[in-house]
Each structure stands twice: as structure tokens, then as C-alpha cells.
Write a structure and sequence with these properties.
The complex is a heterodimer of chains A (140) and B (291). By secondary structure, chain A is an alpha+beta fold. Chain A is built from two helices and nine strands. Chain A has helices at residues 92-112, 115-139; strands spanning 5-10, 15-28, 31-35, 42-46, 49-55, 60-65, 68-73, 76-81, 84-86. In chain A, strands 1, 2, 3, 4, 5, 6, 7, 8 and 9 form a nine-stranded mixed β-sheet that branches. In chain B, 34% of the residues are buried. In chain B, strands 3-2-1-4-5 form a five-stranded mixed β-sheet, sandwiched between helices. In chain B, strand 4 and strand 5 (185-194) form a beta hairpin. Chain B is α/β, with parallel strands linked by helices and 291 residues long. Chain A binds chain B through residues 8, 10-15, 28-30, 40-45, 68-69, 71, 73, 78, 80, 82, and chain B through 38, 41-42, 44-46, 48-49, 52, 56, 150-151, 154, 206, 209-214, 218-219, 222-223, 226, 229-230, 233.
Chain lengths: 140, 291
């Protein structure tokens, strides 16, 4: 079994990372999961959270993602994120921006009276707040 | 016969026009490169997205539980045409070709007794379609303030489309844009985005081997709206590159035409100057002979 696999992180606007990785920790919608070489083929949606890539030399790289999906296959793993940025660039203000937008969506969903949407938006908001807390805690 | 002074003025004015078109051509060339890079950078995402969604669609598509975005509303009475054009003119046939294609489609649908609604993205298309179809307009997206097309622009268009779809405002949505092939060739394209339609063979056979989390239907329901946004985004980027390409070649033509015109005017100018000199000489000589 190979030690590393190809990992691609792409956003709609550009390719953010394309590296050989030993393992990738993905914030899946149903819970976090770690993809390693030889993982069973899997497609999962993402919740907002932190993506950690362990590269071939053992160094790790963290990205914050707000949603999207990941595709794990024999050929490698690709993660299609709606928005992704390195954790170093993720400041309190950016998180606040995300949270404000999620709150906006929640309000819009409530106004529309669509229950599924309200639930989704509420979950999105909670996940984003959790992500912000997590980063704040890690640094502070 | 224009006087020498008139000719001189004309030449000066054509010269400054040539300077302007030359500058526009160079600006378009620089912008084109950036637009092409943006389109290039967006390609991996769009490709993966299409591959996964079409794979999923192939396996879920047949069942009754398929999302409405995939299966459609069950009728195709109301069509929404999303016409994407530029915000500016002076780019050759760029806007007209899109509008022509959209108009042909609209006429065809109306002839079939369908209801047509039009949504325009970009000012130029709106102006051209206003003459015939002003009463069919339902929305307009203004991108004139947007310097660089971002995914958010596509997302907001897609969100608007989905909201209208959910509200039952239309059954089928088609986008019209120019697909960029090269600087001299842009292909006007109509692409149906709602309900989602995939070319056969796009789905790889291996897709059925995947595990899905949460579930196939759940993922599909989550991905289809994203797929719409991605398609809109791709179209916007292609259109952006096409616009700059079209403008570049149009301005190249204009620059060359201005050059030809300057040459022609210069010849006329020199001829008339020569004629004037000859005339003066003849007058002097015949005056001297008469003495």
C-alpha cells in the first residue's frame, strides 16, 4: 500500500492545494473522518470546520472550509469547497462575516417558513460558531 | 473637393481614433489573459462537480425520489431564458450573436405555444431584447459594478433561479452565453441548467462503487443547487473571456481600418497639395509668357 495519496483542494475560483498527503482529516456532514491511502471510495458532504492535511513529510496544513463535498477514491482525495482559506488567514473578522451571513440566511429561511431550510441554516450557524470557538480556543 | 485644411483635420482625427482603438485592443488583451486564467482556474472544480453529480444522477435519476431539480416539474410549459451578455459594447458581434440565438429560441418556443420568460445578465442583451420582448422580462442582473466576476455573483444568480424554480415560476431554465474557443472564435451556446441535464457518458461507471454519506439522495439534493451555481459561474467566466477576445479582435480590425484610411487620406492630401503647386506654377509661367 502506498504511503501517500494525491490530495486536491479546489474552490470554484482556484485550486488551493495539490499535494501528496499521508492523511487528511475532513469535517464530514455526519462527523469528522480521516482519509488515508487505500480508503474505501466515499463521497460525503461537508459541514463548516477545519480540514487538516498531513503531508508526506509529516508537516500539517490546516484550512477552514465552509461547505462543499469530498470525494475519496483509489486515485486520491479531492475536496471541493465552496469557500476555503488557510487557517492563518482566518481571523475573527472573517468568522464574524461567515456567522453574520449564516444568521442572515437563518432569518431569511424563517421568513420563508421552510422548515428544512430553517434547520439547515441553524445547523450551519452552529457549526460556524463552533469553528470560530475552536480556532479562538486554539490560539488564545 | 475638400480643402487641404479639411483633409489635414480628417487625418488628425482618424489618427487619434486609431490611438484609442489600439489602446482598447491592448487593454482587452491584458484583460483577456486574466479572464482566461480565471476560467482555467475554475475548471478543476467544475469538472469534478459535473463528474460527481452526473454519476449520482445516473444512479438516483430513475427512482421516484429523485429531487425536482433533476426530474423536473413534470411539465415544460414555462421556459426561462437566461441571456448573458456584456455590460459594454464595442466588442464586435459578441452581444448580437448571443441575442440572436436567444431570440431564435424564444421564437421557437412561442411558436410551440410555450410561455417564455427572460432574465438578462448584462446591460447590452437587455437593450437589444427590449424591442421585441420587453413584456417577457422577469429579472435583470447588473454586473456593471463588478470588476472581477467572483463565485458570489454566480451564487446569487443561482439562488435567484432556484427560488423562482421552487416558487413554480418556470419549468425549464436555459442559459445563453458565448463559449470561448479562441480570440477570433466564440461560440454562442444554449445550455439547459434546470432541470439538470448531463451529456451521456459523462458519468463514469465507477461511480456506483462509492459509499455515500449521508445518503445518495441527501448528497444529490445538496449538490444539485451547487451544480447550478457552478454552471452559471462557468458560463460567466467563459463569457468574460469571450467578451475580451471579441473586443480584442474587433479593436484590432478597427485599428487596421483606421491605418488604411489614414494612408488613403494622406495620398489624397498629397495629390491635392501637388495639384495646387502645379496650378500656381502654371499661373506664374503663363503670366511671364504673356509679357
Amino acid at each position: 500500500m502506498a504511503d501517500t495519496m494525491q490530495f486536491d483542494l479546489v474552490s470554484p475560483e482556484r485550486r488551493l492545494a495539490s499535494v501528496q498527503a499521508r492523511e487528511v482529516r475532513i469535517p464530514g456532514a455526519d462527523g469528522d473522518l480521516t482519509a488515508m491511502p487505500g480508503h474505501a471510495p466515499l463521497i460525503t458532504t461537508l459541514r463548516p470546520g477545519i480540514l487538516r492535511i498531513i503531508k508526506a513529510d509529516g508537516a500539517s496544513e490546516d484550512y477552514a472550509v465552509t461547505g462543499g463535498f469530498a470525494e475519496i477514491s483509489a486515485a486520491g482525495t479531492s475536496l471541493l469547497a465552496e469557500e476555503a482559506l488557510p487557517v492563518a488567514e482566518l481571523t475573527q473578522d472573517v468568522v464574524k462575516g461567515f456567522v453574520a451571513r449564516a444568521e442572515e440566511q437563518l432569518r431569511a429561511a424563517k421568513d420563508a417558513g421552510h422548515h428544512d431550510l430553517v434547520d439547515d441554516a441553524a445547523k450551519l450557524l452552529a457549526d460556524l460558531v463552533a469553528m470560530g470557538d475552536h480556532i479562538g480556543g486554539g490560539k488564545g | 473637393m475638400p480643402s487641404l485644411k479639411d483633409l489635414k483635420n480628417r487625418i488628425a482625427s482618424v489618427k487619434s481614433t486609431r490611438k484609442i482603438t489600439k489602446a482598447m485592443q491592448m487593454v482587452a488583451a491584458a484583460k483577456l489573459r486574466r479572464a482566461q486564467e480565471a476560467a482555467e482556474a475554475a475548471r478543476p472544480y467544475a469538472e469534478r462537480m459535473t463528474a460527481v453529480v452526473s454519476g449520482l444522477a445516473a444512479s438516483v435519476g430513475g427512482s421516484d425520489s429523485a429531487p425536482r431539480l433533476l426530474s423536473g416539474t413534470g411539465s415544460d410549459k414555462t421556459h426561462l431564458l437566461v441571456v448573458m451578455t456584456a455590460e459594454r459594447g464595442l466588442c464586435g458581434g459578441f452581444n448580437s450573436t448571443i441575442v440572436r440565438l436567444a431570440r431564435a429560441k424564444a421564437q421557437e418556443l412561442i411558436a410551440q405555444g410555450k410561455t417564455v420568460k427572460i432574465m438578462t445578465v448584462g446591460k447590452k442583451g437587455r437593450e437589444q431584447l427590449k424591442r421585441d420582448y420587453a413584456n417577457l422580462f422577469v429579472a435583470h442582473v447588473d454586473l456593471s459594478e463588478v470588476k472581477r466576476i467572483g463565485y458570489e455573483n454566480a451564487q446569487s444568480i443561482a439562488r435567484d433561479l432556484l427560488r423562482r424554480y421552487d416558487a413554480g415560476e418556470f419549468d425549464v431554465a436555459t442559459i445563453f452565453f458565448n463559449r470561448f474557443q479562441s480570440v477570433i472564435s466564440q461560440v454562442p451556446t444554449a445550455q439547459q441548467i434546470i432541470p439538470a441535464k448531463f451529456e451521456d457518458g459523462a458519468a463514469d461507471a465507477a461511480s456506483s462503487l462509492y459509499d455515500y454519506e449521508p445518503s445518495e439522495e441527501g448528497i444529490l439534493a445538496d449538490l444539485l443547487p451547487r451544480g447550478v451555481a457552478t454552471q452559471v459561474f462557468t458560463a460567466l467566466l467563459e463569457n468574460g473571456a469571450s467578451e475580451q477576445g471579441a473586443r480584442m479582435s474587433a479593436m484590432d480590425n478597427a485599428t487596421r481600418n483606421a491605418g488604411d484610411m489614414i494612408d488613403k487620406l494622406t495620398i489624397i492630401y498629397n495629390r491635392s497639395r501637388q495639384a495646387a503647386i502645379t496650378k500656381e506654377l502654371i499661373e506664374i509661367i503663363s503670366g511671364a509668357e504673356a509679357l
